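Sample pair:
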Amino acid sequence: MKYILFLLAILFSFSNQERKSLKGLYKLEYKNTFTYRLHNGYITFDDSIYVMETPKNFKVNGTVKYYKTLTLLEGNIYPNLLIDFKTEDIEKDTITFQVHDRHSGGNYLDFSVNSGKFIKIN
């Protein structure tokens, strides 16, 4: 009987975990802004969507996909580019990310074309 209660307690604790999500305003800094004409700016997250804004008022809307160990950002301006970072970094004030090109061939998540960081503002 103890084992059954112990097993139920473990199953209940795993099923009651909340999903981490991004909310708020972050400063976006690319390591190399010359590749793919990427611009530094600001990005506002609201759970599963984001809006990226550059200093020249260029806005990019996109979606955020949360996986167990990885979070992906997909935009509508550069559909071949995506940004990924570790899901465990969501709770940090500074999140380092990688930029990948889907048309680079093979497993595109293995090859990074750029990197950078999100710095939490509020």
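DSSP finds one helix and eight strands in the chain.
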